Input
Amino acid sequence: MRLRRVLAVTPVIGLLGGVPVVQGADTLSVYPTAGTQTASPTTQISFRGAATAPAASVLVSGSATGPHSGTVENHSDGNGFSFIPDQSFQPGETVSVQVMGYDLVGEQNGSVSFQIYTPVPHLKLVPNPDAGGTAKKSQHFHSEPHLLPPFLVVMTKKGGTAPGDLFTAPKISRGQDGAMITNKRGQLIWFHPAPKGTSIYDFRVQHLGGQPVLTWWQGKTLFAKGYGKGVIYDTTYRKIGQVTGANGYKPDLHEFELGPDGTAYTTNYQPVMYDVSSITGTPGQMGKLFDCVIQGIDIKTGLVKFEWHSLDHIPLTDSYFRFIASAVDPFDPVHLNSVEPEPNGNLLLSGRNTSAAYEIDPSSGNILWRLGGKSSDFSMGPRASFVAQHDVRRRPDGDITVFDNGTPPQSPSQKPRPARGIQLHLDMNAHTATLVHKFKRRQKTFAASQGNVETLPNGNVFVGWGGSSPYMSEFKSDGSLVFDARFDPGGSTIGTDTNSYRAYKLPWSARPYFPPKLALESVGGGKLEVYLSWNGATDVAKWEVLAGSSPSTLKSVKRFHHNGFESSTRIPSSYKYVAARARASDGSVLGTTQTVKR
Output
């Protein structure tokens, strides 16, 4: 019989990276979870539900490598720790784990065991080429000449829209990818070009430590996947954090979700060799597969709080994708594309290639229910079924929103149908899913990939129409369209025109840590054009131009209203030195440009 640690504390309910746990109990959740078949050779072993444990009490042994020594590092929220082995594990071996004085979730015969994946031999994943260059159409600014964002054209705007700015991450085959904020009129507020050779996905406002922050994924893309990192900026546009993945995994482009207590949720695609006999009928046949790995990472420490592997829980037979043994790229049976921590502590997932959504228990990794697909636990009501969906989310009222792409995975015999956003009500007693509302543009809009549905605070719904569709739309709860916009250049062919993985409408207030910019241009007639901008500033109401014969003799010569990303005015060309101040609506000075010599 195992001797249990006696804890002289009163049990209280806490959060395990968004998962309810009983602090003070002697049962720990462990990651990789019991029975995982595709853990990384460089995995740490993470425990949740206790503040710490001495390294000597963690017993780890590999079936090929034997006992492993290591160190213990605590999670920043004080409710977990990770054991970092001193050496890697070997592919294919089984690892057993014990913690003296504690029971572990999923343990059998006193320990939890998991298996290390076997890598795909000689596999080379080649990133998509970045054409770079300048697009046929792009915005140009005298004061910020290196910024070349696309235009955003507002086509429909009616009463009843929710407040907020538009957040997109435009990507284009030739031109400048980046993170972009525009106002409700489509005017640029902030643009951040992606570093050369990389793309930006899933750009939005989230909250960290109770404060609004900008977040996005940045990295190199492969077809429908990516390898990169999550990035976090504050309201002055300073980079305050990044998440580069753990256990040998690199975050994928599909999700960078900030959950409670400083946890970042990421998706990761890991190529592994795996038994495919369930779909080929050949006993023992191995094939190249992508394992979809979800991680919950402690932002402050980089340690893993949670890890989940799709191959352990979703049968290959549930996939609508076809396995082709001779294919160069690994088979992607599930293709997870969204992860959301729910108020009840569970996680809500979306699997494109299974046309299904899942709710999972993070402590055990078990699937609690399946919505849609081949193994749905719900009877799907009229027009409630979805195909190759993205961005499954829980609404405040408990309903579920889905971006229904309508394009069957790898099914040339099935014609795609127009994409739509939908709201579903799940009856947990009757096990039925009922369509509550659908959200569609007037023109048929097809979206072979990507897209999202955002529920706004006033009850409206904002829809980003995804890859190959340059549109974003806002609807009232009854489905009536109140806002519609598009990128220019835009188009309908993947990889050739501007589109955004997701699009959001969110409140944002910021003041850059860097000063405003000023540029001068002689325009004849004894006049000098003064161009002014402050990339990302949201509270500039007026500009004040200062000019003089020397930097020390500058005086105020003109004030005028801020009227777009770049405002301009004219002053006499007799002035040799010019600067400007950005002022708020109350007249206070927000920032001052450098002094520029004519």
Q: What stands out?
A: Residues 517-597 form a domain with the Immunoglobulin-like fold (CATH 2.60.40.10). The first strand starts at residue 12 and ends at 16. The chain has one helix and 45 strands.
